[in-house]
Amino acid sequence: MTDRSDSIGIVQPHDCFFSEGIRLHSGQILAPVSIRYETYGTLSEAKDNAILIEHALSGDAHAAGYYTENPNEKPGWWDSMIGPGKPFDTNRYFIVCSNVLGGCSGSTGPGSVNPATGKPYNMSFPVITIEDMVDAQRKLKEHLGIQKWLCVAGGSMGGMQAIQWGIKYPDEMDSIIAIATTARISAQSIAFNWVGREAIMDDQDWNGGNYAEQPEHGLATARMLAHITYLSEESMRQKFGRRLQSSEDYSYAFKKDFSVESYLEHQGSRFVERFDANSYLYITRAIDYFDVAGRHDGELKKAFSKVTCPFLVVSFSSDWLFPPAQSKELVRALLANDIDTTYCNIESSYGHDAFLLEEATLGRMLSGFLDNLYVKKGEAK
Amino acid sequence: MTDRSDSIGIVQPHDCFFSEGIRLHSGQILAPVSIRYETYGTLSEAKDNAILIEHALSGDAHAAGYYTENPNEKPGWWDSMIGPGKPFDTNRYFIVCSNVLGGCSGSTGPGSVNPATGKPYNMSFPVITIEDMVDAQRKLKEHLGIQKWLCVAGGSMGGMQAIQWGIKYPDEMDSIIAIATTARISAQSIAFNWVGREAIMDDQDWNGGNYAEQPEHGLATARMLAHITYLSEESMRQKFGRRLQSSEDYSYAFKKDFSVESYLEHQGSRFVERFDANSYLYITRAIDYFDVAGRHDGELKKAFSKVTCPFLVVSFSSDWLFPPAQSKELVRALLANDIDTTYCNIESSYGHDAFLLEEATLGRMLSGFLDNLYVKKGEAK
User: Fold this and answer.
1) CA distances (Å), A43 to each of A92, A300, A339, B172, B174, in order?
2) What pLDDT shows up at residue A247?
3) Is A255 an 8 Å CB contact of chain B?
4) Residue A344: phi, psi to the nearest 5?
5) What CATH code is carried by the domain that includes residue A262?
């Protein structure tokens, strides 16, 4: 049972529907588009206290609070950071979080029904990009009547969206927080994503994307593989080492002898229950394609030439998926554009997952950055 | 066409057959056992110039030379190191390399026929260990009439076998060379092996190990995943970066857009042609189980208490599969036992694969170490 005393409490999801859809980066029109979102806190009369929270690959719109009174229910994925008195303080801010386009938790994605056929899109869903996700969120912003975000913030793929917001709509936010993220992923990350997708597409149950039941084995394998990249070698050593599941000797059979094997299988099985295989394909591809320097001949500096608002960039020392060097490259590009940039590489053994686990240290960074903004904004009035 | 002028030339494989088999570490008897091996150079009259070369996971007995005059044939896997005038100098030494027990290139493995049933063992093959591989090689040693190896040398899993030789048969070699290896793999490596095996076993063509045709997709996925761990992030960046296969834009489809994707798929396809899926399961499990400190309460020092011969230990700076820290741990345990130990961490961007690629630097290390041994041995006469 979780202590809910410091939580925002019971929340509920909303949907907004855009019949005109959006023009995708690939040139295709996707219509209609529906976006699932949640809000926490109250929008000020001046509508100047709204913060957009961006979720990572396997996240959703449910960032904080609970849906029911069930004492066993787990809170939203960033409940440690969002709530009354927390870094994203719902006593001050109006927090918005939406499920990404291409997702499987309420927003339009490959599992949605194609109105032209009356059947799910599946693999006929157009390939989407991080920019498309942001464009869909911008429709939500208009729908909510917000002119300017106080902040756009996210970790991992959420950080990519935050960066993309700054580049595409530089006048529409007062600040950006980019945590454990990158302006473009490495060849190694592209390779891991490729192998994960191969595992899904090789599962006979995938059936070209037209499945009634999930391709469980393939999706679990993709998740287990990805999960290894979210942890650091050090955290796996500390958490599991070479410990056996039973205290006895090896089984000399192909069983889950090691604790780490049992843990991974558990992660795979849980993921299959809550995430759609086709969405996994589309979202990882959007991550691969994300490269803010792509249309600027690889020079990161040019990509940020129109950005004006301050940035907070946070990396974690043991993150080898989106390593600190990539954050530093991002910071150099921001500074080269004379952008007010706060950067911290937090010492942590948790690897990439640190953005969800280093609550105390990350919380202080976020609070400090947001407090400063809030005070400045108050003074400006 | 390869220049063969510095090669040992045409070689041929041999088989030796042990009808009595061997008692495995698990307690089972495996009989009969057949071992495929090759030799290069000439055994001296005193039989004191024999060096055992140990292959890695996907290697075989064909370490040097060619089978045919076909100018397109590739030489054995370590031809750069073994031959006349090379570090493992066939003018001086008698080189032996055998395919491991559990392998699929001539030695008894899961694909061999079980004499009790007249059918291939497949998954009824007993789970084998690195120690079992060494015990099978010891039979070969007896068969060849060699009392003491001048050296036992190997990289990666080959290094594990070399270490195991030293621990189990400390009086039967004059030296040990352990390259890019470890006394026990990490939780992270166990996890990668687990995911690779899951990919194979989830392939419907695997069929519980009873396949007529290889489970190609699963085995290719396992290989692609493993291949990522053999390269370093830096080498992948240098080799591929985010380069596209075609000079045009993204496909906005699930094609091989990135060069690294195309490369990986090629590696997967090639592997399926030459390696057996069940062997992959058994050999990776043997790697997982390898832990020389296992029966010594995790203390590595005790494991080497009976070792007397000098060691050469080599690691590579960018190897993240069996990182330098693991070699240093090994070196500390050797030094704590007052074992004459030469250690070098070679600066390289090639990752784990450096043991096959850093020919010049590694070659000099090997030559120096072996020369020293050879001269000492000559003086002692």
Assistant:
1) 9, 35, 28, 79, 78
2) 73
3) no
4) -140, 130
5) 1.10.1740.110
In a domain, A132, yes or no: yes
Contact B348, B377 (CB under 8 A): no
Q: What is the pLDDT of residue A295?
A: 66
What Å distances lie between residue A38 and A11, A41, B138, CA to CA? 8, 10, 67
pLDDT reading at B298 higher than 80: no
Query: Which residue range forms the structural domain that includes residue B135?
Result: 14-186+289-380
The CA-based diameter of chain B, rounded to the nearest angstrom, is: 72
Closest CA to B240 of B219, B271, B263, B269: B263
Say yes or no for a CB contact (<8 Å) between A228 and B195.
Answer: yes
Q: Is the pLDDT of residue B1 over 60?
A: no
User: Is B357 an interface residue toward A (CB < 8 Å)?
Assistant: no
Cβ–Cβ gap A190/B242 under 8 Å = yes
Q: Are residues B139 and B254 in the same domain?
A: no
Q: Does A299 touch chain B (CB under 8 A)?
A: no
Domain co-membership, B44 together with B140:
yes
Backbone CA torsion sign across B101, B103, B108, B112: positive
Q: Report how many domains make up chain B.
A: 2
Amino acid at A163: I
Q: Please state, as a whole number, how many other Cβ atoms lie within 10 Å of the Cβ of residue B211.
A: 18
CA distance B56 to chain A (A): 21
**SS3 for B345?**
strand
- In chain B, what percentage of residues exceed pLDDT 90? 93
Q: Are residue B154 and residue B34 in the same domain, yes or no? A: yes
Residues A326 and A370 in one domain: yes
DSSP A146-193: -SSBSEEEEETHHHHHHHHHHHH-TTSBS-EEEES--SB--HHHHHHH
- CATH assignment at residue A77: 3.40.50.1820
In angstroms, the CA B237 to CA A191 distance is 11
Phi, psi for A271 (deg, rounded to 5):
-65, -40
Cα-based angle A41, A45, A47 (whole degrees, multiple of 5) = 70
B53's CB contacts (< 8 A; 6+ apart) are: B63, B78, B82, B88, B95, B96, B97, B153, B154, B158
Q: How far apart are the first and last CA of chain A?
A: 44
CB contact under 8 A, A188 and B228: yes
What is the distance, to the nearest Å, from the Cα of residue B92 to the centroid of all Cα atoms in its chain? Answer: 23
pLDDT of residue A248: 77
Q: What is the average per-residue pLDDT within B24-50?
A: 96
Q: Would you call A242 and B188 a contact, using CB atoms and an 8 Å cutoff?
A: no
What ipTM does this complex have? 0.95
According to DSSP, the residues that pair with A39 across neighbouring strands are A96
Contacts of A298 (CB under 8 A, 6+ apart): none
Exactly one of A203, A257, A319, A353 is catalytic; which is it? A319
- Is residue A125 located within the same domain as residue A222? no
